[in-house]
Design brief:
This protein folds into 3 domains: 79-253, Serine Threonine Protein Phosphatase 5, Tetratricopeptide repeat (Alpha Horseshoe); 262-502, Rossmann fold (3-Layer(aba) Sandwich); 505-604, Helicase, Ruva Protein, domain 3. A hairpin with a 2-residue loop joins strand 9 and strand 10. By secondary structure, the chain is an alpha/beta fold. It is built from 23 helices and 11 strands. The strands form 3 sheets. It has a 5-stranded parallel beta sheet with strand order 2-3-6-1-7, sandwiched between helices. The protein has a 4-stranded mixed beta sheet with strand order 8-9-10-11. A two-stranded antiparallel ribbon has the order 4-5.
């Protein structure tokens, strides 16, 4: 047990060093004075003895200096000694180095979590070398159990630090663990991963009791349990704590779903598409609450025009289901798989072929996260052999890669997007919009009203979910899908075909408002310019909507008609930092007026060439 803080210890050592230096100087002076007295009484012999005594005095000072340097070095942080002490279980040296690191306040803030130059922590070194006592001591000194490894192999580590790979390998073996492959990447590992690999039940118990997350994944998507021996006490410990941890996570997720339903989350980021959101949310709710077929993954096909929100809905679904984990969203552009041989790029090349060891883009990603949300963008552009692979994936919830390894992914959610039948869906959607608006106007006049309901406004009608009729699905859309994909079994494995309809007028105004807010934030952040607009601007820009390009047409309209004028005004020196720009609309045309800093009136800008 240490009785002094790091700063008190350093101050005490400095006082000891000063006293030792003064003592060495006094001894040296006495030796020199002795030399002088002897020299004055004995002539030439005295000079000779004086030289010897002076040399002896210098030696005394030299030895004292070396000793003091060793004392000072003993109380300074030493990276090599710290990590070797962790690997050997030297508790006294661990305490000494932690106190020295805290006093120095160096890289990584010092203390028990101080990282090695090549990326690991002392807690990881202790766990990898089966040193439970050192693990417990480091945790007591404040080490955090869930820090992740940054060592990505000898070559990558050497490149980052400007070392030779052999030097990085040697340091990994000397200052971490000699029994582990120093060439391999351990990126993302926690101390619990190392304890599992080392089969150190004591280290695992100490880490789990300190709150280590047994469900944490490394860079390859694997938990600590993946590396534990079977059977072993270490594995039993991790399994037990994993069950408790998952129960807590499931309870917390269920409570969050009750307070913040999926529909509410999606509507924050997706404009319109009420029917699509409700369809997806209902299917996901069945799966999450155990009311779905557990033998098959959940499969969606999103249909509609470009820029209508299909890809964004898949992204937000992944964020909701997996708490913003980037590894839980896998996006594959199927236009890259238009040739037959590109199937190998998806699942990996067979043994003996070039790239066999690399694996496929899909199989690698699913091996890391088997419960991910996988987006197959523009699936209609893929080669038929790719669709055969997807059929196996959707039908059995498993996939065999090029190496013959079976990947189970029944808990994954697969989303396909396509522009097939986009024109037909767009025209049908516009017809539904017109019918809904006509009914809303009649209801507002009181001529068509359900019993006990208040008449709806056109804006309220625009927000209602428009239902695509079964007749339209079966007689128009399904023949187009069957003609393209050519197989009923593929379409039969799709749980929900989700239709994305054109935006209503109110939704277009919302899209324009969001786009203007985004540009106003950029103007403020980049140019210190405040951007304001009148209400008529929204309608003028919404008129540029193209049903075939969706929200992208609104984005391009804002850039062409407004941002171009702002850029031209800035080029001509009309927009100074701190000024305010007001955008107005008249007869469908946009105009800019500028108010300089410390002025109250706006001056119209004439940007005509």
């Amino acid at each position: 047990m240490l009785k002094m803080s790091g700063i008190q210890c350093v101050r005490s050592n400095l006082r000891t060093i000063r006293r030792s230096v003064r003592l060495a100087v006094v001894l040296a002076r006495r030796q020199v004075h002795g030399c002088g007295a002897a020299g004055s009484g004995s002539g030439g012999d005295g000079d000779e003895h004086g030289d010897e005594r002076f040399t002896h005095a210098r030696a005394v000072v030299g030895v004292a200096t070396i000793g003091l340097a060793l004392v000072a070095a003993d109380h300074q942080y030493n990276e090599k000694r710290f990590f070797k002490a962790a690997g050997l279980g030297n508790l006294q040296e661990i305490r000494r180095q932690v106190e020295a690191a805290k006093a120095g306040r160096g890289r990584d803030g010092g203390g028990a979590d101080r990282r090695h130059t090549l990326g690991w922590t002392a807690l990881m070194a202790a766990a990898a070398n089966d040193q439970p006592a050192a693990v417990a001591e480091l945790l007591r000194l404040g080490a955090r159990p869930d820090l992740q490894e940054k060592y990505a192999g000898a070559s990558a580590a050497a490149q980052q630090q400007g070392l030779h790979p052999l030097e990085a390998m040697q340091r990994r073996e000397d200052e971490f663990c000699a029994s582990m492959n120093s060439r391999a990447s351990f990126l993302g590992w926690t101390a619990l991963h190392y304890a599992a690999l080392a089969d150190s039940a004591g280290s695992a118990a100490a880490l789990l009791d300190a709150g280590a997350d047994p469900t944490a994944r490394d860079h390859a998507g694997r938990r600590a349990l993946h590396y534990a021996k079977d059977p072993s006490p270490t594995r039993d410990l991790i399994v037990e704590h994993s069950a408790r941890w998952e129960e807590k996570l499931a309870a917390a997720a269920a409570e969050e779903r009750r307070r913040f339903p999926l529909e509410q989350r999606l509507k924050q980021f997706i404009v319109g598409q009420t029917a699509a959101i409700e369809t997806v949310a209902a299917a996901v709710r069945r799966k999450e609450n155990g009311w779905a077929d557990e033998e098959h993954p959940l499969v969606f096909l999103f249909l509609g025009s470009s820029g209508i929100g299909k890809t964004e809905l898949a992204k937000q679904l992944a964020r909701y289901m997996h708490r913003d984990d980037p590894a839980a969203f896998i996006r594959l552009d199927m236009s890259e798989y238009q040739e037959k041989h590109e199937v190998a790029k998806l699942i990996g090349a067979p043994p003996g072929y070039v790239g066999h060891e690399e694996g496929g883009q899909l199989t690698r990603a699913l091996a890391r996260r088997a419960d991910a949300v996988v987006l197959f963008d523009e699936v209609d552009k893929a080669h038929p052999d790719v669709l055969t692979v997807l059929l196996q994936l959707f039908d059995e919830g498993r996939l065999t890669d090029g190496k013959g390894k079976l990947i189970e992914c029944k808990n994954a959610v697969f989303v396909m997007t396509s522009n097939l039948a986009a024109d037909e869906i767009a025209q049908y959607g516009l017809q539904l919009r017109r019918e809904a608006e006509a009914k809303a106007q009649l209801r507002a006049k009181g001529t068509v009203t359900k019993h006990g309901e208040e008449p709806a406004t056109p804006e309220e009608a625009a927000g209602e979910a428009l239902e695509v009729s079964r007749t339209f699905k079966d007689s128009v859309v399904r023949p187009i899908l069957k003609r393209h994909f050519g197989r009923d079994e593929f379409l039969g494995r799709i749980n929900e075909i989700v239709y994305f309809l054109p935006f209503s007028r109110q939704e277009l105004l919302t899209l324009v408002q969001r786009e203007l807010v985004r540009w106003a934030e950029q103007a403020r952040a980049r140019h210190a310019v405040e951007l304001r607009w009148e209400g008529g601007v929204l309608g003028a820009l919404a008129d540029g909507y193209d049903v075939h390009y969706g929200a992208r047409s609104i984005k391009h309209e804002v850039e062409r008609r407004l941002v171009n004028q702002l850029a031209l005004a800035a080029e001509r020196g009309a927009l100074a930092r701190g000024c305010c720009v007001l955008v107005t609309a008249a007869a469908g045309r946009l105009a800019l007026a500028v108010r300089a800093p410390r002025q109250t009136d706006y001056t119209p800008l004439d940007l005509a060439v």
